[in-house]
Amino acid sequence: MSIQIQDPELKEMFEHGVYFHGHLCPAMPLGLRAGLLARRKLGVERAKSKELMLLSETGTGHLMQCILDGLMMATGCTYGKGNCKKLNYNKMAFILINVVESKAVRIAIKPEFIKQALNSPFMQRRQQGIPPEMIEPEIAEAAINNVLSLPEENLFKVGDVYDYEFIYAQEGPPEFCKKCGEVVFGSKARVKKGEILCIPCSGYES
Fold first, then answer.
1. Is 18 inside a domain boundary?
2. Which among 26, 30, 37 has a CA at the least distance from the CA of 158?
3. Per-residue pLDDT tens for 107-151?
4. Residue 196 exposed, middle or buried by CB count within 10 Å (0-12, 13-18, 19+)
5. How, if at all, do strands 195-197 and 190-192 pair?
6. For residue 88, which of 59, 73, 84, 134 is within the disulfide window of CB 3.0 to 4.6 Å?
7. Does any domain span residue 2?
8. Are 119 and 19 found together in one domain?
9. Residue 14's closest CA among 39, 37, 36, 41?
10. Are both 16 and 95 inside the same structural domain?
11. Which domain holds residue 186?
């Protein structure tokens, strides 16, 4: 068995996505399709800078959280650019914001699909604690082909485009910690006994 992708953009993103993500699994390409759909709904290209903002409702340590890597690949929203934020709701949904036009769309993975996916051989092995890279390739490929071939309406609950004004926080100038000497940017500098410190050196939790 091999992975069948007809759409050239999706095919290219899948290849880059697997390299970035590190293993074959169905959740990453699910994120690719969801991100491309959100872009299409908003009528936007992949973000080159901060023209888009991604609010992912996923969390850490739950099944299918790999969707976020696919969302980042498809939308161009990344942690490095500062236009990706994880809301830690442990949900399979996200909001993509067109910052320039102040418009947004929310897309959720349909519960019916998730219930079906949880019963698949791939997810059964994951629930047994088997790492994704240790699952038989033919099982992983079957799960991926299922995600890639299903109609969008079987996978996604798509909300209406709505108004959403998003303004990026403006950080202050860089400071240098009096204790370790390292740079600390803007609002994360702390003052203790009259000295500028980074959070670790200050002893504060945040």
1. yes
2. 37
3. 999 999 999 999 999 999 999 999 999 999 999 999 999 999 999
4. middle
5. antiparallel
6. 59
7. no
8. yes
9. 36
10. yes
11. 171-206
Per-residue pLDDT band at 180 (split at 50, 70, 90): very high
Q: Is the dihedral of CA 103, 63, 130, 152 positive or negative?
A: negative
Instruction: Tell me: do 60 and 85 sit in the same domain.
Output: yes
Given a contact cutoff of 8 angstroms between Cβ atoms, the answer to whether 42 and 77 are in contact is no
Q: Which tens digits make up the pLDDT trace of 76-98?
A: 999 999 999 999 999 999 999 99
Residue 121 lies in a domain: yes
> CATH code at 53?
3.30.1330.130
Cα 109-64-10 angle, rounded to 5 deg: 70
Single-letter code of the amino acid located at 19: Y
* Residue whose token pair is 């080159």: 48
∠ CA 40-112-78, rounded to 5°: 40
**Which residues, in sequence order, are bridge partners of residue 162?**
104
Beta pairing partners, 56: 86, 94
117, 67 Cβ separation under 8 angstroms: no
**Is-contact 146 155, C-beta < 8 A?**
no
199 and 125 in one domain? no
Same domain, 124 and 199: no
